[in-house]
Amino acid sequence: MKAGRPKQQYLPRRLHCLPPALLNNIMHRHNQFVQSQNLRVFVGTWNVNGGKHFRSVAHKHESVTDWLLDLAKSVKPDAVWGYRNPDYTDEQINKPIDVFAIGFEEIVDLTTSNIVAGSKPTANQRDWGLFLQRHLNRDVHERDSYILINSVQLVGICLFVFARARLATLFRDIASSSVKTGLGGAAGNKGGVAVRFQLVTLFG
């Protein structure tokens, strides 16, 4: 039988030089001073059809705010579209999202100049970031504000990560990357983007 992988522990570097016996004791007693917390994470994509269509192209009566903030409230348990976990109470449904990971498709037109530009930030990326932050903070008087953690763009695809302000100091090792796969890796008309981070409270 293979032994399971040990749980990853987070200790500040200044404690790494403690005697092994003391470190081992700290690790075995970590449940006494470590608390876990459940977070709500929203992950979704939105096709903006080559620009700044702040309202849905297919469903012109819907806006980004409807999608990000109000969709879960509007979907009924017996609806034929959308999804609402029947085991969730109204209180759970109405609980604010802690982290938003919002992806966009066709944020710019696939022109030759845009494809060559690759992962360079664009005005559309800036405008969408400001638009999202403004609308995510629509109900800021009722809860924490949202701040931008990171953003990355590759031609027409763009990823934004927002989080509640109270969590900002808990983010560690934030990084982003983009990979071109078009024309053997030379063009960004195809490819992917990613943002990674750790969300953890370290020992004081």
Automatic annotation (TrEMBL):
This is Inositol polyphosphate-related phosphatase domain-containing protein. One of its GO terms (molecular function) is phosphatidylinositol-4,5-bisphosphate 5-phosphatase activity. The chain crosses the membrane at residues 145-163. Residues 45-199 form the Inositol polyphosphate-related phosphatase domain. Keywords: Membrane, Transmembrane, Transmembrane helix. GO terms for cellular component: presynapse. GO terms for biological process: phosphatidylinositol dephosphorylation; synaptic vesicle endocytosis.
